[in-house]
From TrEMBL:
<feature type="transmembrane region" description="Helical">
    <location>
        <begin position="84"/>
        <end position="104"/>
    </location>
</feature>
<keyword id="KW-1133">Transmembrane helix</keyword>
<feature type="transmembrane region" description="Helical">
    <location>
        <begin position="145"/>
        <end position="163"/>
    </location>
</feature>
<dbReference type="GO" id="GO:0009389">
    <property type="term" value="F:dimethyl sulfoxide reductase activity"/>
</dbReference>
<feature type="transmembrane region" description="Helical">
    <location>
        <begin position="169"/>
        <end position="191"/>
    </location>
</feature>
<protein>
    <submittedName>
        <fullName>DMSO reductase</fullName>
    </submittedName>
</protein>
<feature type="transmembrane region" description="Helical">
    <location>
        <begin position="276"/>
        <end position="297"/>
    </location>
</feature>
<dbReference type="InterPro" id="IPR007059">
    <property type="entry name" value="DmsC"/>
</dbReference>
<keyword id="KW-0812">Transmembrane</keyword>
<feature type="transmembrane region" description="Helical">
    <location>
        <begin position="251"/>
        <end position="270"/>
    </location>
</feature>
<feature type="transmembrane region" description="Helical">
    <location>
        <begin position="7"/>
        <end position="32"/>
    </location>
</feature>
<dbReference type="GO" id="GO:0009390">
    <property type="term" value="C:dimethyl sulfoxide reductase complex"/>
</dbReference>
<keyword id="KW-0472">Membrane</keyword>
<dbReference type="GO" id="GO:0005886">
    <property type="term" value="C:plasma membrane"/>
</dbReference>
<dbReference type="Pfam" id="PF04976">
    <property type="entry name" value="DmsC"/>
</dbReference>
<feature type="transmembrane region" description="Helical">
    <location>
        <begin position="110"/>
        <end position="133"/>
    </location>
</feature>
<dbReference type="GO" id="GO:0019645">
    <property type="term" value="P:anaerobic electron transport chain"/>
</dbReference>
Length: 311
């Protein structure tokens, strides 16, 4: 599949933003995160800013962005429409939670309830995003048991590392949160390796023979459907060289997983403000690594429509 940067940035930014929003909504009520004005302003600003930037970026991949509102009406059958409805609905409790925290200076009572509802909305929205790809049977690399859990794991991982950087910046870092971020990053690393191993061993049953119903012999086109590249080949026939794929996988492992873990380990042994600097660097590096991971997620996917073109 063609890895359009608008969609790559959308899935990365919203995943991190919803992960941060969910953690803030769950942890602020019990008092794990103090109701500080600047902490709330920066934290909710980051979460809602990343979500908004990602959603706006996704509109750049639409042929007619002015008609995007029509997608909301198909929520009964379309995961894309459900994602749109869930993302907009989540802004309601998130806005109330941010208002109570930043304006009223409290995270208890109804503000805590709004935070929990925002967290639930964030998780549901990430699930709908993952199901957009999980539900596509023509793309075997996405239509697997690894896709949806991967979206949830990466969202919690990147959101947790960003929350740790936020709290370290305000000199209120938590050893429990730091350890949790490391475990989530290691879990994400293992899940990504398992996903790659599954995709590399994947045997796609659909061939030109099964598509045409001609079981005997080898089916091939007598004439090519087109003499030049068309929309289908551009969007669904994208191919990446094997050497580039291997190199980008290495970059993903270093930036998204290995280096953030090493930086977080160093945070344990260093005082503030060095811990804050390394925590912020870990969040930035991981975000860059997840951009590469998302690019590969699209670039490595193969759509069965390319069989029509002899691929």
């Amino acid at each position: 599949m063609h890895p359009a940067f608008s969609v790559v940035f959308f899935t990365t930014a919203t995943g991190t933003g919803y992960g941060l929003l969910a953690l803030l909504g769950v942890l602020a009520g019990p008092g794990f995160v103090p109701p500080d004005f600047w902490l709330g302003l920066v934290g909710m600003g980051l979460a809602l800013g990343l979500i908004s930037a990602g959603l706006l970026s996704s509109a750049g991949h639409l042929g007619r962005p002015d008609r995007a509102w029509r997608a909301f009406s198909q929520w009964r059958s379309s995961w894309l429409s459900r994602e749109g409805v869930a993302s907009v609905a989540t802004f309601v409790p998130a806005g109330l939670f941010a208002t109570g925290w930043v304006v009223l200076g409290r995270t208890d009572g109804w503000v805590a309830v709004a935070g929990l509802l925002a967290a639930v909305g964030a998780v549901i929205t990430v699930c709908t995003t993952g199901m957009i790809y999980r539900s596509l049977k023509p793309i075997a690399q996405w239509h697997s048991r690894y896709t949806l859990p991967g979206y949830l794991i990466f969202s919690a991982m990147s959101g947790g590392v960003l929350l740790n950087a936020l709290l370290q910046g305000f000199a209120i870092g938590s050893t429990i949160l730091l350890a949790g971020c490391m475990l989530l990053t290691l879990l994400g690393w293992g899940w990504k390796l398992a996903t790659w191993r599954y995709n590399d061993r994947l045997e796609i049953a659909t061939t030109a023979n099964t598509a045409t119903g001609l079981a005997g012999g080898t089916v091939r086109s007598l004439e090519w459907p087109h003499t030049e590249e068309n929309y289908l080949l551009k969007e669904m026939g994208f191919r990446i060289a094997r050497k580039h794929k291997a190199r980008l996988r290495q970059i993903t492992q270093v930036l998204a997983f290995a280096l953030p873990v090493l930086l977080l380990v160093a945070v344990f042994a260093l005082p503030w403000p060095y811990a804050a600097v390394l925590s912020t660097l870990a969040a930035i590096v991981q975000f860059a690594g997840m951009l590469v991971e998302r690019w590969l997620f699209f670039a490595e996917a193969k759509h069965t429509v390319t069989l029509y073109y002899g691929r």
